[in-house]
Amino acid sequence: MRRAVGACALLLTGALAVTGCSSSAQGGGGAAPEKTGTLVIDQAFTAQSIDPATIFQVTDAITASGLYQTLFTYIDNVADPQPLLAESITANDAATEFTITLRDDATFANGNPVTAADVVFSLNRLKHLAASPAYRMEGITVAEVDERTVQLTTENPAPYIEHTLTAPPLAIVDDEAVRAAGGTDAEDAADADTAGQFFTQPANGAGSGPYALESYDTNAQIVLVKNENYWGEAPAYDRIVIRNVNNAQQQKANIEGGDSQIALDIPGRIAEGMESEALQVQSSSSPEVLYLALSQKEGAATADPDIVEAIKTGIDYEALRTLVGAGAKEATGIIPSMMIGALPEGEGPESDPEAAKQLLADAGKTGTEVTLDYANDYTRLAGIDYNTLAQGLQTQLEAIGLKVTLNPTPTSTSLQRYVDGETEMALWSWPPDTADASDELVFAPGGLIGERVHWPAEAAPATAELAEAARVATGDDREAAFTAWNESMNEEAPFAFLLEPSFFLVASTSVEHVSHDPLAAINLSQID
Question: Which family does it belong to (predicted)?
């Protein structure tokens, strides 16, 4: 297999319009606003680090899209990777060796050219820091061929490699600047690297994107300013301010009052009535599935197969969909409908609360106590109120005979408990870094998310084998392989796959071009 992609492909990709919502004269009316030099974006923050090698939160990924660049990128809402810092890529027939040629005009904000040495450093640092996103470099080695050429070698076939290379953690940084700040790509980087705080310093110069960092506050706001030395077309704004606004009604008031130009977390039930001469409304299919994680840790009530089956069967998925509102649909599995391997509508988990109630009664497990963890301030997922959703789940599960205690905590606390494997039942979603189904394999037994619920490969060897078969499948075999794994996950996994929400974006009409990307985020470098 050989594939070459020219950088000119970027120029051939049109700006696609995302599905618009119904128009209404109510809310945000008035004349179309004029464009200013500052773009203000309201979002419910999930921010932790803008060191690319440790980025694992949505707000940080959005921020990074203005500061840093990857070898490949998505243009607008099209799930087809296009060259960015790369100029071309070729692969061997086995899809295990990839030769990437870099474009020759890209520079970092500090003026240094982007070279193969920077690529090798960035990807090896990601691997050896061993932070959460390091799994993306598992089984991949990278080597410099010459100043403009790198070679990636994978242990298994990786026909999806260009998708992988769009992920924010694989952004390329200036190795000279990061090394000077204490960074290293050596195998002991997890202990030896001290450059983490360098990335929060204003104008650190380590990125090649159209904007530079002015300030980074994970609780209040993040400010970017124009990179005066940007190698590409000049950015559209002098400043971008991303503000932490957790309340959807406040986001609505801000954008209708002209205090912001983009709102990312207004739910569909509100957004659908906001379109006007002053405001544009867009919606896009979700790249993520909302799910319940059921711990298999010894001693957890959810480690009991009868409890798992009762929960998965006892949930009224249609009622949850109605509770969430506009655009949401029932999940058919862990793979969202936009990806290969997704199951058709109607082939997802079956709801039968009466059967679940009878199962618990027959097993003598009526009244079993279960604790549901969730983030009570988390509204990033399409503006969904987790408090309302958790209460709905509590009502449904208590109706089948379980006794459910809610444990609402702030996102930082709830997420850390989940990451550390301390939750019994947890409500989360997985925001993928790429638009390829391989991104969902973290849910497989023994995978990153599988481990969080104490579900090793030996606990479900058949499902683990199907996951590996999907991972290495190539060509036309990929869809069938991922479908088989998805079906097995529905049967065996200690997860209840609930919903696929729709993401809504409300923007001032002064913003000439903005679009969700395939991951329902926005790319700051593509906003005009």
Answer: Belongs to the bacterial solute-binding protein 5 family.
User: Taking a C-beta distance cutoff of 8 angstroms, is the pair 123, 170 a contact?
Assistant: yes
Phi/psi at 105 (nearest 5 deg)? Answer: -115, 0
209 C-beta neighbours (distance < 10 Å), count: 25
DSSP 3-state of 222: strand
pLDDT at 13 over 60: no
The CATH architecture assigned to 38-283+505-527 reads 3-Layer(aba) Sandwich (3.40)
Phi-psi region of 382 (alpha: psi -120 to 50; beta: other; left: phi over 0): left
Domain with CATH 3.40.190.10 in the chain: 38-283+505-527
CA–CA separation, 364 vs 361, rounded Å? Answer: 5
Give the Cα separation of 262 and 486 in Å (integer): 35
From the number of C-beta atoms within 10 Å of its C-beta (0-12, 13-18, 19+), residue 462 rates as exposed
Q: HEC string of 283-301?
A: EEECCCCEEEEECCCCCCH
Mean pLDDT, residues 244-251 taken together: 92
Element at 309 (helix H, strand E): helix 305-314
Q: Which of 174, 183, 61, 195 is nearest to 118 (CA)?
A: 174
Integer angstrom CA distances of residue 179 from 169, 171, 193, 416, 492: 18, 16, 9, 30, 46
Domain with CATH 3.10.105.10 in the chain: 290-500
Among residues 85, 91, 88, the alpha carbon closest in space to that of 101 is found at: 88
Residue 16 pLDDT > 60, yes or no?
A: no
Q: Which amino acid is at 12?
A: L
**Quick one: 103 exposed, middle or buried, by C-beta within 10 A (0-12, 13-18, 19+)?**
middle
| pTM of this structure | 0.77
Alpha carbons within 13 angstroms on the beta-carbon side of residue 308 total: 22
Q: What is the mean pLDDT of residues 155-162?
A: 93
